What does this fold into?
Amino acid sequence: MEQKKSMVNTTLVLLIKRQDNNISEICLAMKKRGFGQGRWNGVGGKLEAGETIEQGAVRETKEEINVVPIDLKKIAELTFRFIDNPEWDQIVYVYFCEKWKNNPIETEEMKPKWFRITDLPFEQMWPDDKFWLTEVLKDKLVKAEFNYEKNDIILDKNVLITDKL
It folds into this structure.
């Protein structure tokens, strides 16, 4: 009998700006290498040994765009299963950050850019983003599951708007 491996915990941080108490802009970064290369996304990644999820989120944000988050607000938990690549299976803990040190800068890993939320580059993002990101940008909390097959095709999804995570 095949043993099922546990999901990898990963982080995703989205810097946001507000205008009149509504989210007006979001910082996405073009992934320049590795998993997700060629896509706009938030910043983040896998935890290192002994790190909490929040510590990993802060470290990854610093490494990828030289920003040090001051406050993190958890906004989503996303579970991804990749039928053809189970080593990619992961739970992503997503955070908004409205206060930080340093300006986002390009690194070997990521090239950050600010987008108005009305002009998000969904055609260059993960296909699932249009299902959950649009909700969190309305200040909703989301729990979602996505099952992918090859060629970035979503086999099925379950997106739940929730009161708490």
